[in-house]
Amino acid sequence: MHASPLSRRAVLAGTAAAAALTTVPFLPGRAQAAETIAAAPTYRWRNAVMGGTGFITGVLFHPSARGLAYARTDIGGAYRWDDRTASWAPLTDHLGWDDWNLLGVEAMAVDPAHPNRLYLSLGTYAQSWAGNGAVLRSEDRGATWARTDLDVKLGANEDGRGAGERLLVDPRDSDVLWLGTRHDGLLKSTDRGATWATASGFPGSPSAGGQGVTLLIAAGRVVYAGWGDSDGTTANLFRTTDGSTWNAVPGQPSGTAAKVPIRAAYDRGTSHLYVTYANAPGPNGQSSGSVHKLCTLNGKWTEVTPVKPGGTTADGSADTFGYGGVAVDARRPGTLVVSTNNRWAEVDTVFRSTDGGRTWTSLKDTAVFDVSETPYLKWGADKPKFGWWIQALALDPYDSRHVLYGTGATIYGTRDLKNWAPQIRGLEEASARQLISPPVGTAHLISGNGDIGVMYHESLTASPSRGMASNPVFGSATGLAQASAKPAYVVRSGWGDNGNGAYSNDGGQTWAPFKAQPAIAKDAPGPIATNADGSVLLWVFVHWDGTKYPAHRSADNGVTWSEVTSFPKGATPVADPADPRLCYAYDTDTGTLFASTDSGLTFTARATGLPSGDSQFELVAAPGRSGDLWLSTKWNGLYRSTDGGATFSKVPSCWASYCLGFGKAADGADYPAIYLVGSTEAITAVHRSDDGAKSWVRINDDAHQWGWIGEAITGDPRVYGRVYLATNGRGIQYGEPV
Prior knowledge:
The chain is mostly beta strands. The protein has two domains: 8-30 and 51-422, Methylamine Dehydrogenase, Chain H (7 Propeller); 432-737, 7 Propeller (Methylamine Dehydrogenase, Chain H). The strands form 15 sheets. Strands 1-10-9-8-7 form a five-stranded antiparallel β-sheet, with no helix packed on it. It has a five-stranded mixed β-sheet with strand order 29-33-32-31-30, with no helix packed on it. A hairpin with a 7-residue loop joins β57 (713-715) and β58 (723-726).
């Protein structure tokens, strides 16, 4: 397809120009804000440190600038490595609410001849409901950007996201760029990414597989492209020697073990191109794979697979896996590293060869790990494993013993090929779901997250020393609640192998599983709540496919459970913070507020005719006040009840509300500070109100927007002005006035 000149927008991160990128279109009939937004205070934003916690899909050292490297993630943007501080700096936090789909980075490219130039192709999903992709280009290593919107979709969080870089600066001409897509073939730009058009003559024919171009690499002046939609018998590696004509590479490997080219690396010293293969794009689903090298001088292919998949482990399990990353040593010809991927039985490893792949050594066999900086990496075990989802692999061109590899949770690094530690400082990719800021205790924050369960943050500047909450360990948290009058009592729910619900009597430091749980909890763990004094639990069950099941109640700390037939299926239970007899739930299907006056035994309808059918609702109880409820309804705005849900009034100062929370009141104020992700005028942003939502101030800025931020927000009940914000891929952000 042809992309005739595409729209271009200059984006200067941290300047007023970025504000225009987050505008929300005017909606007919929209209630206008009753108050003008006050002058915005200055806030400092930082991550509540966890350390990685997400899939690192690519790591790229610059070939001609010492100490310069970049990393990409599937949903959390791109980062630049700062060798002086030994940390990563985020480069795409300026992307706002409307651009949430661009927080997934499909590929990166650097220009060997111009070290300050950086290119990113962005687009998280290629589905019909997702927006089109975009290309960002920078002349200052990602400090500022220019942007080109594409008319094709990219898929940074889809299968194949750990494959090679699909973006490349042409080795002949720095003005020429190549961009591989999943469904639209190969694109070409002749003006450094400002405009794009379909590359003529490229032979790949897209299919429903949705892989398309899996890698682009230069070997001297020749450009190679991997093709992921082959059936294993047709060509999957093409090349061009003149930038116009593309042909299949002769003699290339075929068969199941070489069906999908995953990554490639070129050794200039030996003129060999190394390619890793698998029978599926990964990161999951691979059961076979291989490694091959091509001598670009004579066209000879040689298989150099370290260990062929398909053997049997000591316990009789099948040793199935594919191959992922590959990197060559720029200082030592014939030295390279490759990684296995999806090797669950024997655990993935990185193999190293110093003789062009004739012999290999597994670096896992001698590896010594230190994860003291990010203890969660033990995943509840005694020690961490070498890794999984290893497709990003990089070797420092200026230090032969400096190797990095990405996993599903971190970046491990070594400088001696033996001692490994997370090299992840500054890179935070958690998808945060629930936030609690306790009124007392050591921790100011407890979080529920995707993939890494619940964490107790005794410090905001260091990864939680206890790691993931254990006993049991959850994959993803689905519920987190604290008894307002008994803050030492905390409960959580989520996806776990040894139970789906747990409680804590020390504020979330240690946990114990419920003695029993409803049978449906294993397949559909949903939100959980506890009433004000912690004497009653309400647990809701919703399957991942959206099926809603009856809620259950326990009055003996999870020893026994009974079904609550009058509770609206799928609703999130909310406890009254002052009266343990009162509980609430909002039925999004009918727009009805339900309430219980008998500690959750029965629920009856109160206010009706409220917004329904919206994809996002949140019912929040104001702290310390009985019956003071706030209903956040996305495009329908914000509603408030002061009579326990009998009636609601619309708040005129806000026309779009995504999530809402409370914090310590300002000096002299008689109501808690309210924090809101929503729209009070034109843009979706983070706001604070000190006067009960009569007026708002925006507290984030154009450089700090983080894409999708509509999951959860809460203020600190002990520190005025401090707010915690859950993001989908940039961890937990916390802001404080300066």
